[in-house]
Structures are given as C-alpha cells and as structure tokens.
Amino acid sequence: MTKVIIHIGTEKTGTTSIQKCLQQNRANLAQQGIIYPHIGPRDDAHFDLVNALHPLDNNGRYMEFLPKVKHEQNFYWDALARCIIANPDKTIVLSAEHFSSRLRDKALTFMKDFFDKLNIEPEIIIYLRPQQGYIESSYSTSIKSGSELTFAQAFTSHEQQTFRYNYHKLLTLWSSYFNQKSIVVRVYDKASLNGDVCTDFLSLIGVNDLKSLQLAAVHENKKWGPAMLEVARLVNMQAKGLSPYQRHKLLNKCEQLIPTAIPKAASVKGLITSEQVTLIKDFYSDSNLKVAKEYLNKEQLFNELDEQQTVQESPVSISRQHLIRLMMAIFNDTHSD
Known about the structure:
By secondary structure, this protein is of the alpha/beta class. 52% of the residues lie in helices and 7% in strands. It contains 18 helices and five strands. The chain has a five-stranded parallel β-sheet, with helices on both faces. It starts with a strand and ends with a helix.
C-alpha cells in the first residue's frame, strides 16, 4: 500500500535545505521507491498544495508570495491523488513548512477527508527548535522581506502568534485530525541531528543508500548578523523608492563592508538579550514539557546545550555616524572598481 509522508515544518528548521535535497535527488530517490512529486508550478516544495487550501482558514486569501492562482481548489489535490494511485507500494513525500504555519481547522478537515477517501493515514514529520532561536530567525526573515520593526517591537508579538510558537497547541491541532502516533517530532539542533538535518530527514523517510545522492551542495539560507539586520531595517525605512534589484544590490554591498566600516557594531553576534531568553523559556516551559512527554517520552524538549544562544545585554545600535561611515565606504568601494 502507498505510504504518504508530509513534512509540515516548522519554519526556520532547515526546510529549504531539505526541499532542495529532495528536489535535486528526485530521480535517485525514485529508484529507492521514494517519490517526491512535482505538483504545481513550484518544483522545490509543495506550496501549491498549501495555497489551494489557504483561503479556507485565511478569510479567502491566498498566500501573498505566490503567483495568482489559476486553478480551482481541488486541481492540485486531484493531481496528488492520481500520483498516489499511480504509485502503489511506494512512499510519497510532501514538504512545505506552510502546512504548519498557515493551515488550521478547515484546511485540515479537507486534508483528513482527502486521505480517508484514499484509505491512507499519512505520517507527519515536524521539526521543532527552541523558541528563542525561532523568534530571532523569523525576525531576520521579516527584515529581509522589508519590515521596519525593531527586534524589541517584533519580540512583543510572540504571545499573539500562538500556533507558531506554542508547539503543544500546534501539535494538538494536528493530532485532532491525524493519529498522534503518526506524528514524528524531531528536535532541530546540531547535536541531535549530527549537524545535518537533510540526512536526518532522509533516514526518517526510509532512504538506505546515501552514496548515490547529492548532498554536499545543499545549504540553508544565509544568516545576517545583528548589525546587518539593523542596517537593512534602516534601509527599509528610508529607501522606499528603490527597486527590488537596487535594494538587493545595496544590501549586498552593505553586508560586504560593515565589518570594516563599523567593526564594533559588526562584532555583536547576538540579537536576543539574556532577559528575553529567560522570558521566552519561562513562557513556553509548560507547552514544551507537554510536547516532550506526549510525543518524545522525555522529561524535557530541549536540553540546556540546545537552548544556548549567543545573547547580548542591549540591542545593537547603528548611529547616524555609523551610517555615514558605511555610505562613504560604499562610495569609495564603488569608485575604486
């Protein structure tokens, strides 16, 4: 019988690396009986399956970063059904972090009915990371996308994003539609994953032969430091007339020159403060304890080494003088080419 595995995230747990790995090894995986189907315009991940259901729980809206939808709701899900039927006794793997971050009751009801009709109980794989690191990484993404909020401003909103950071509530939602025993929870940290989330995921989906796969070229999204994030935030505020290309080019140049133009700010490694870390750990301690006991049969979800972050005691500050120095460095660098 066909087995279906759905990798639902969470965001900021190496999902891009996993998806690129599956994408570039699609043919080799198929030889091992594992199908990573190409469904929809996106070739790397199954965002189009999520997007088809997104309006159900989001006031009729589709996901903002995808092209305009041209097909009815069932179009891509019907394609998935045909793929499942055409591949008996194979493993079908789906991956999109927005399964967990965007879909709620109505969409999960659709998914439950879809798999029930095929007489399939899918296995759900989800990676979790300490909330403080998740909040930091989410902030970085928001700045790259054009946000003007300071980290302190963004930090205060975590309590309102219940399903994003309260892992027990998120897992309780999914286990109300799919068997809790079919939900595989993995802790996203280098120690637990032997430093490689891709090989960990491949082992979970039943890959026995890694030698035939391309693994070395898979990398996660590049991380910006606190100084670069603050410079980018200021650019977002002041340079609204730039085209996406111009903004990208300017920020790339800033990233190259920050270490020499403003070395003191560049030396700050942490974004979150030790006080904020304590607040986060206390706020989610009960949720994390429940996840550990119910899904991992452990006494704690993240050990102390997993939870260690590079912290600072005050936010990184980029002054007008810093910016002038950086702009002068960009000017001199540009005219020296």
